[in-house]
Every structure is written in structure tokens, then in C-alpha cells.
Amino acid sequence: MLAPGCASFHTAGMDQLDEASDEDLMLRYAAGEAGAFDRLYARHRGGVFRYLLHHCGRRAAAEELFQEVWLNLVKTRASYLPSARFASFIYRCAHNRLIDYYRSQGKVFELSIDDEDGPSELIESLAADPGEDPAARALAREASEQVRAALRRLPPPQREAFLLQQEGGLSLADISVLTGVPAETVKSRLRYALSKLRGELAELAP
What we know:
It is a single chain. This protein has helices at 6-19, 22-30, 34-56, 59-76, 86-104, 121-126, 134-153, 156-166, 172-179, 183-201. The chain is mainly alpha-helical. The chain has 2 domains: 14-104, Rna Polymerase Sigma Factor, Chain: A (Orthogonal Bundle); 121-204, Arc Repressor Mutant, subunit A (Orthogonal Bundle), CATH 1.10.10. Helix 3 packs across helix 5 (86-104).
């Protein structure tokens, strides 16, 4: 039987994890707090997986790379230093896994606005929950496929910048550091990517 007050103490501890920054959670995980990893994983698993899938285009490959990214985080947790945002750390790891994947396939992973502060309304609208209506779900699936196809047609540097911003939430400065190009170049890539996506996906706009 739990002692009086144990449940409330546990709840308070869970609330503290929910409110903690990514960087604090990573440090707490490195110190042995397993629950901190669960929070990080819940916050970033969707974005990291979509980033990998949009790049390599194969779900099986993306799933394998996804596992490698998180295993690498587990292995390197003791050496983690919060010198940059956690998002930059995890997407750099994903970026490096993609480079390894492309090399293994004999390919090269090429990495060298008006709405620079956020995603376009079109992209946001496509993320809306279609609910339980079968017709709405079918339309959502079709729209999702068209978005993925449009992303694949972007030049690799533009696709990389767009996905790092939209899936990873990285700033222009973060993307500049990760990809090794000036922030103005990143800004241009984002502007061109959004322009091309809007042009290709205009018919999906509500």
C-alpha cells in the first residue's frame, strides 16, 4: 500500500517533467531519470520520423534510421552538453544517419521569406484532424500523399531546410549551423521551398 501523500508526490513529479525544457530533460535522463527520456521521445518522435521518411522515401528504411537515431541518443547521453538546443542535437543525429544511409546506397545526400517565421497556412491546414468521417479521411490521405510527393520534388537543400524548420522547429541560425551554409542562404531556400509547395499544392487549399 502506498503511504499517504505518495500519489500526489508522484503526480507533482510528472508535472515537473511535462514543464521541463528539452535540455533539462536530457540532462535528467543522463543522470539516470528514465521518465525524462519518455518525455523527450513523446515530444520529438513524430517530427524526427517524418523528417527521415520525407528524405529517404521508404518507410522500412525510415524506421531503421529512426531506431538508430534514438539508440545513438541513449549511447551518448553521458556526454551530452546543453551547448545548443536539444532539437538541434537530435536533428543533427538524424541528419548524420541520413548521410550514412545515402552513402550505403551509393548516393550523395546533397546539402551544400515571406513566411519565414512559420509554416504556410496551406501546410497547417493539411495537418488538421479529419475526424471519423471516412470521406474526410480518404481526402486527408490523398492530400498527404500529394504533400509528400511535392516535398520529394524539391531540390535536396530546399527540402532539408524546410523539414528542419517545420518538423524540427529549428531557427534559421540552427539550420545554418547544422547545414554549414549562411543564414541568408537558409532563408532563400525556405522561401523558394514554400513558393514551390504553394504552387504545386494550390488546389488543396481550403
